[in-house]
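Can anyone check this?
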Amino acid sequence: MHALDNVIWKALATRQSAFAETFDQASRFPREVTALAAFLEPSPRGYASLAGLLGVGGTATLSLASPYQPQPKWDVIAAFPGLQMVAEKAVSETGDASSSLGRPDHTLAITELAQRDSPEMVELATLTKPGPFGLRTYELGTYVGIRSEGKLIAMAGERLKVPGYTEVSAVCTHPEHTGQGYARGLMMEIMRGIRERGETPFLHVRQDNARAVGLYEALGFLTRMVVHFTVLRKS
């Protein structure tokens, strides 16, 4: 199995095992960190393990290798296909993002975000919906942001970590500040840190988000596989 197959499970079993809440063949991150969860395989035992972990009314976001097949006593809250993309080559080898994606405003400094910034990070993520984000998500890795007039207007960071790979995540920009190249600049900063550790950046994106996919391709990311994001609630 490749390190990026069943990547949530692999992360919780390896580099991020300190976050793992586990029941038999299922694991999840603490809810305040992220809603992501996984099981060893989508078998009856896997779903039973997830049920034992969540309890009645509990919810989780899964990344499945194939479309969700209906299971007894599980409700689908949301389901959509996504892409898992990997940047094997550095951006200098693949070319920079095109000018049509915006030019970075170098008058605004990139700063590292920390616990004190968490409420603003959650607020920006709630507005822009880059994926599950909680008050403790910042604990998963390095997060950087850009402020304008003291307000956080863009950010990006690290989420899932497995041997040899770190995920670029929470890439988002306030709607009033898009088109300035902030996402590209922040991603390049995060990717630089990942590569300095001898690791390879990867990410996940909704398959229908053409603008984001175009940016990621311009930064050297190539699609590795289609994944199926599914948000389930135990009934």
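Reply from J.R.: I decoded it. The chain has two domains: 7-82, 83-225.
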